[in-house]
Amino acid sequence: MARISIAPMVDITDRHFRYFCRLLTKKAILYTEMITSSAIIYGDRNKILDFDPVEKPIALQIAGYDKKEMAEAVKIAEDWDYDEINVNLGCPSDRVSGNQMGATLMAYPELVAEIIYAMKRETNKPITVKHRIGIDGTNVLPKDLPKVVLDKYEDLERFVKIIAETGVNHFIIHARIAILEGLSPKENREVPPLRYDEVYRIKKNFPHLFIEINGGIKTINSIKDHLRHVDGVMLGRVAYENPFLLSEVDRFYDNGKVNNVSRREIIEELINYVKKLGEDDKRGYHAIKNTIGLFHNKRGSRIWRQLISPPWEAGYGAKEILERALDLLPEDVLDERPRII
């Protein structure tokens, strides 16, 4: 069976956005934002780890480099009953890779293996890894090492082979290298070329592994194309930029049915959701801010963006904004449903 997932995205895939996504897709697996092991150990655990049961299936993504901390974080998270624990080995940002986490660790697959073994001792949940096809940069450990370049297919294959020996059998591969010096995280999603063939080759050479592809995938047809070569597809920014696309992805599961929902019904459900949050305008704004792409490329998209974006008129909270949207937006767009093929 194919699998579709929504990538972990910092400042986007919080619990509010995940609730919104679950209105659109009933079957795709959702991910938390990347959370560091130290944040779980020392931070506000309820704030960091709580989720609504409606969000399931849901995966927790953890970043870290210390195997004891990673194991402790996993042990703590057991009380929250996530469906999967994912290790971040792909984030290229200075804040992450410069602190010996994320994509930096691709240079040290043996260390990653030790981390995974320690994590597996604390959970029976599936442990998966998300990584790039390679790295190019200097944010590696120890700090005095020269520039590391791991951008050949053979480097990727060696990495996968070592990690697979831990018992991990699910790899989510972003089909770009991570350039760890000189590019921002946004540029790292756009500048390094996509090399899908290398991900396909991993699946061919490791047929027993579940290989999920990520990077630049924005249409239903492209999902179909990738699923001819790999087992799953992870959608990234398109889930934020054009979220109504998610209403079509359930077709890739066993029963082949899309989630037959309209934008009007989604907004009505969001009204009920923000009512439960209470009258705090700040909470209300955070609950709906990442829905801004709901009318992507449709009549009314500008109205929707203007309504959602602050500052809001005096006396308006999230509930009133959403109710006003139902009055102002074109009825045919509000009542549009996903294509049923």
TrEMBL record:
FMN binds at P8, M9, V10, Q61, K130, H174, N214, G215, G216, G236, R237. It comes from Tepidimicrobium xylanilyticum. Keywords: Flavoprotein, FMN, NADP, Nucleotide-binding, Oxidoreductase, RNA-binding, tRNA processing, tRNA-binding. The keyword tRNA-binding applies. The record marks N88, K186, R189, R302, R305 as: Interacts with tRNA. This is tRNA-dihydrouridine(20/20a) synthase. InterPro entries: Aldolase_TIM, DUS-like_FMN-bd, DUS_fam, DusA, tRNA_hU_synthase_CS. It catalyses: 5,6-dihydrouridine(20) in tRNA + NAD(+) = uridine(20) in tRNA + NADH + H(+); 5,6-dihydrouridine(20a) in tRNA + NADP(+) = uridine(20a) in tRNA + NADPH + H(+); 5,6-dihydrouridine(20) in tRNA + NADP(+) = uridine(20) in tRNA + NADPH + H(+); 5,6-dihydrouridine(20a) in tRNA + NAD(+) = uridine(20a) in tRNA + NADH + H(+). Its cofactor is FMN. SUPFAM superfamilies: FMN-linked oxidoreductases. GO terms for molecular function: flavin adenine dinucleotide binding; FMN binding; tRNA binding; tRNA-dihydrouridine20 synthase activity; tRNA-dihydrouridine20a synthase activity. The lineage of its organism: Bacteria, Bacillati, Bacillota, Tissierellia, Tissierellales. Pfam families: Dus (PF01207). Belongs to the dus family. The active site is at C91 (proton donor). Residues 6-309 form the DUS-like FMN-binding domain. Its EC number is 1.3.1.91. It comes from the Bacteria. Catalyzes the synthesis of 5,6-dihydrouridine (D), a modified base found in the D-loop of most tRNAs, via the reduction of the C5-C6 double bond in target uridines. Specifically modifies U20 and U20a in tRNAs.
